[in-house]
User: Which sequence fits this backbone?
């Protein structure tokens, strides 16, 4: 329950602290990514507090963060690394694609693809970040760190011999990953 609260706070804090220097649509994309994670974590606090009625909502929010949030972060990373302002059309297409994936993955027979979407997004984000590394953009290193931490978190959560509960480990490492994404955007705000 504490790790959910830490994750919720971290997502909101990172958004307000690091992403204010971005253009409007870029900031909205990052906001969808960070705030869907934060809202999911807040509902997770209620779930772990024993309020059973929020279980279906929590699962739906997990899928929303894993679809809309993930699609938004891919495009957000593209805008950050390539130093592009996302247009209104680009924003609308991104959100529509994320919501379409969300609706598709709500189907219980297809939920196995939830992890495929996240894994594919991590690969795409790394490829975009490596383009930035080749261009000697220091922000890209923070993105690589963020994705490596996220990949570590999703892989190690399956181990049973962690010193803390696997879900707590996932939440704390996800918080660290969000902080790394924020550090990548920090230099944009300083340059603007």
Assistant:
């Amino acid at each position: 329950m504490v790790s959910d609260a830490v994750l919720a706070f971290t997502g909101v804090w990172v958004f307000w602290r690091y992403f204010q220097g971005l253009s409007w649509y870029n900031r909205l994309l990052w906001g969808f990514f960070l705030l869907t994670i934060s809202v999911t974590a807040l509902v997770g606090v209620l779930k772990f507090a024993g309020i059973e009625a929020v279980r279906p909502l929590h699962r739906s929010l997990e899928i929303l963060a894993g679809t809309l949030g993930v699609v938004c972060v891919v495009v957000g990373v593209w805008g950050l690394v390539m130093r592009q302002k996302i247009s209104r059309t680009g924003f609308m297409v991104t959100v529509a694609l994320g919501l379409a994936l969300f609706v598709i993955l709500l189907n219980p027979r297809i939920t196995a693809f939830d992890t495929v979407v996240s894994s594919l997004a991590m690969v795409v984000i790394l490829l975009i970040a490596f383009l930035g590394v080749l261009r000697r953009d220091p922000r890209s290193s923070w993105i690589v760190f963020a994705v490596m931490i996220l990949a570590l978190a999703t892989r190690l959560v399956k181990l049973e011999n962690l010193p803390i509960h696997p879900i707590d480990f996932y939440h704390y490492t996800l918080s660290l990953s969000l902080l790394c994404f924020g550090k990548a955007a920090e230099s944009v705000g300083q340059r603007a």
The chain has seven helices and no strands. The chain has a mean pLDDT of 92. The helical segments are 2-18, 24-48, 55-81, 88-105, 114-134, 138-156, 166-191.
